[in-house]
Amino acid sequence: MFIQHKLTESDDGYELILYLDPMLTEFSEELGRRGRRKREKSLRENAAQYIREKLPDLKIKTIKVMLGTTLIATLAFAGPLTQKAKAAESTVVQSAYQQNAKLVVDGNQVQLSSPAVNRNGTVYVPVRDLANAVGATVWWNAESKTVGINMGETRIAFIIGSDKARVNGIQVSMAPSYIVNGITMVPVRFVAESLGQTVSWCDVTNTIYVGTGKVQTYTVKSGDTLWKIANAHGLSAGTLQAVNGLSGTTIYPGQQLIIKKDAGTSNPAPAPAPAANTVTYQTYTVQPGDTIWDLSIKFGLPQQELLKVNNLTTSSVLSIGQKLTIPVHHIAVKATVSPKHGEYLDWWTEAQYLFPINKVATVTDFKTGRSFKVKRTIGANHADCEPLTASDAAIIKEIWGGSYSWTERAVIVNVDGRKIAASMSSMPHDISYIKDNNFNGHFDIHFKNSTRHNDGKVTEAHQQQIKVAAGLV
User: Fold this and answer.
1) Structural domains in the chain (count)
2) pTM of the predicted model, to two decimals?
3) Which residues of 222-246 are buried (b: 16+ CB within 10 A; e: fewer)?
4) Residue 342: inside a domain, yes or no?
5) For residue 124, which of 59, 79, 185, 314 is within the disulfide window of CB 3.0 to 4.6 Å?
6) Are residues 114 and 177 in the same domain?
């Protein structure tokens, strides 16, 4: 009957707050219709059973019964208190819900008005969010507490809290819906499949995928890479990344990826360009030894951005267990002039998130077509990079005419299948991190609007070469 509790200690006992399971909506309504004494008796009996099972050693002075944010009843109560119980004083100690599931419809993650809930394998989401995402409409009858969902020729109707529904007039079973904070939560699989959608679940990413039938999914296997999967399906890695809302290239065995197809053909649908860039957020729990700098590298973010979003400064001290907000930048794929040219991406808002520190990329000289591998090892105003190996260093020297130079050349930086227009000079300078690559220092790669380190100004020669790589001049 109760899904969680909260305890507050006083001098002569504890106040216990019990939260009714919102799935038992019909029962809670029945409580409201009963007389005061019968209602209190029923609640007291259930509360006593809950206490015997979960809090047998506590002296409970008062019990408050809540349904969401609504107080149902306040009951006086008394029970034994032992020293063992002292360790039990706290906040919420158990819950039936896991609120971390994600919903992806036709390759697009849906922004939910209330968190998705995974309850014993059944994922619930707000009915209107799901309906809007698949192109359905919702109606509500307050008197009968009936919800209706219409899409094309399909009509779904059910009463809140009931385990039955009607689909085009035929009665079927469903996991009961419920209301929390004024939002109706419904089982995704039942609603989506009733509307003719395909549904699949990924345990690795805790994501439920809904599609119209135009979307094909692929389950990642051990040894797979984003590039390998994209190539097998006639896509670029960048397109696969964009369709699945991935900010990086890390994938896991068992993860499901969306392979978006046009209806009635095996040809891949074009990348969603030029869609808008978006930012989502995740939570990270600080571990022993963590520093802001290390975490900014770990998550591919500028240190200042990580500090700002968490209201920290460079002198702030992190605590083990502290929760940090981590921005995740989703950079939309932009159209290119031709397959030879690169995306014209702004360094500050786009390129630096695709090519973060410690990222390895393949650089192709635009004029000669020769390629080599590099690693971004440092740099904030632009990318400071090093040849990955001695062989890569030798290729760079050959491209620049036999000696390293400050001369700017148009290049294409290929990062995880995203081809980005850039400009590079090859002169080694300052600090280096990679050993045994026959390159003493690092070199500069500039992108749209990137600047010099020494004065923060744009180098026009680099910007001109970037436009060459983008096909704009």
Assistant:
1) 5
2) 0.47
3) eebebbebbeebebbbbbbbbbbbb
4) no
5) 185
6) yes
CA 238 – CA 225 distance, rounded (Å):
12
Question: For the chain, which ranges sit under pLDDT 50?
Answer: 25-26, 80-98, 261-273
pLDDT of residue 242: 63
Residues 223 and 191 in one domain: no
Do 75 and 101 sit in the same domain of this protein?
no
Dihedral sign computed on CA atoms, order 453, 457, 458, 459: negative
* CATH number for the domain that contains residue 163: 3.30.457.10
Domain that holds residue 80: 2-88
Q: Which two tokens stand for residue 197?
A: 């959608």
Position 403 scores a pLDDT of: 97
- Torsion angles phi and psi, residue 233, rounded to 5: -110, 15
- Is residue 35 within 8 Å of residue 52, measured between CB atoms? no
Distance CA 274, CA 269 (A): 14
> Of 267, 412, 277, 290, which is closest to residue 343 (Cα–Cα)?
412
Determine which helix (DSSP H) or strand (DSSP E) holds 130, and give its type and residue range: helix 127-134
In a domain, 207, yes or no: no
CB neighbour list of residue 440: distance below 8 Å, 6 or more residues apart? 428, 432
Q: What is the pLDDT of residue 94?
A: 32
First to last CA, the chain: 69
Q: Which residue has the tokens 């991190």?
A: 433
- The single residue listed with the structure tokens 């704009």 is 472
Q: In this predicted structure, what is the pLDDT of residue 23?
A: 53
CA nearest 109: which of 263, 272, 231? 272
CB 409 within 8 A of CB 467: no
363 and 461 together in one domain: yes
Asked if 435 and 377 touch (Cβ cutoff 8 Å), the reply is no
CA 406 centroid distance within chain = 41
Nearest to 410 by CA among 344, 351, 464, 348: 464
CA distance 386 to 392: 9
Residue 334 lies in a domain: no
User: Is residue 2 classed as helix, strand or coil in its secondary structure?
Assistant: strand
> Do residues 217 and 257 lie in contact, with contact meaning Cβ atoms separated by under 8 Å?
yes
Per-residue pLDDT at 268: 36
> DSSP code of 353?
H
Identity at 265, one-letter amino acid code: T
